[in-house]
Amino acid sequence: MSKSYYLFSSGELKRKDNTLQFIKSNGEKRDLPIEVIYDIYIFSEVTINTKLLNFLSQIGICVHFFNYYEFYAGSFYPREKLVSGDLLVHQVMHYSDYDKRVLLAKKFVYGASDNILRNLKYYDNRGRDLKEEIESIEKLKSSIDLYYNINEIMGIEGNIHKVYYSSWKKIINQEIDFEKRVKRPPDNMINSLISFLNSVLYTKVLSEIYKTQLNPTISYLHEPSVKRFSLSLDTAEIFKPLIVDRLIFSLLNKKMISDNDFDKDSNFLRLKDKALKTIMEELEKRLTTTINHRSLKRDVSYKHLIRLELYKISKHLLNEKEYKPFVIWW
């Protein structure tokens, strides 16, 4: 089974015959068989060359870069091989036709809302008393269909998240300083974890888009931009509650991560190396976790659920089957 590779040490990544070789700054060498690499994440200073990039492009491996503060810096997105002019035309048509765009935008918000509610109901059933938050979000969700403007729809989504995040003090067993979502820059441990893991999920979705015929720059809820793969942002909204939020709850409630795992001199903007590795290990475990799919009647991983979602979006765009967003059923 292919998997993601995470590079935390400084060094050089290069092609060695038909494999990759990572040479750490201390001279230690590690051969990485190309057959088992799904994508690569770089969290340190790594030297690469065009020979390597050409090789990765031939194989079709995305590389995602994060800077010193673990902020997402960008991706090497190989030349697309699974292209479809027909699908691209339909993608653009669904963006250009405002009725069709609004329909898809609402579906992303509905999917995200349903999965947020699933998380809250899970913890409410375990004695966290989240009924007030659940009721508030259900009311907000019921109002989505009243709006026709994308900005208004995103405003409803923002209000849903505001209520959702206000409940985290009841869910998390640690004493946390978390009053509201702050992004630029994140101002405490919780905001830093959310920002970091959201950006990692964004790249996970991007790697999956590369395996489909979808164009990653054409989106419906988030405005397409020259600086981002905005379809990843749309799709990630649906999976944040399952992959990001549940991982944060687990890490904090099991005391695997605490305030002490952050560099305070950088105002919570940088995870210590040991904590970063722990988080990425736990994320990879979560992405490879399997569940029995109700429709396919077979076990699929969380990561493959993202690919299946993209296939559903493709079918909607091609007018083959109306898109129904993924909702957690377990």
What is the SS-derived class? alpha/beta
Strand content: 5-15%
Q: Characterize the largest beta sheet: strand count, sense, and whether it forms a barrel.
A: 4 strands, mixed
- Judging by the overall fold, what is the CATH architecture of the largest domain? Up-down Bundle
Distance between the termini: 25 Å
| Structure annotation, total helices | 10
State the domain count.
2
CATH class of the largest domain: Mainly Alpha
Q: Using DSSP, what is the number of strands?
A: 10
Shape: globular
Helix content: 40-55%
Cofactor: Mg(2+); Mn(2+)
InterPro entries: CRISPR-assoc_Cas1 (IPR002729), CRISPR-assoc_Cas1_C (IPR042206), CRISPR-assoc_Cas1_HMARI/TNEAP (IPR019858), CRISPR-assoc_Cas1_N (IPR042211)
GO molecular function: endonuclease activity
Enzyme class: hydrolase
Structure notes:
With 330 residues, the protein is an alpha/beta fold. It folds into two domains: 3-76, CRISPR-associated endonuclease Cas1, N-terminal domain (Ribosomal Protein L15, Chain: K, domain 2), CATH 3.100.10.20; 87-317, Four Helix Bundle (Hemerythrin (Met), subunit A). It contains ten helices and ten strands. It has helices spanning 50-59, 85-96, 98-128, 131-143, 150-166, 168-171, 189-210, 230-253, 273-288, 302-317, and strands at residues 3-7, 11-16, 19-24, 29-33, 37-42, 46-47, 62-66, 72-76, 290-292, 299-301. Helix 3 runs antiparallel to helix 4 and helix 7 packs across helix 10. It is globular and about 60 Å long. It is an enzyme of class 3 (hydrolase). Belongs to the CRISPR-associated endonuclease Cas1 family. Homodimer, forms a heterotetramer with a Cas2 homodimer. Keywords: Antiviral defense, DNA-binding, Endonuclease, Hydrolase, Magnesium, Manganese, Metal-binding, Nuclease.
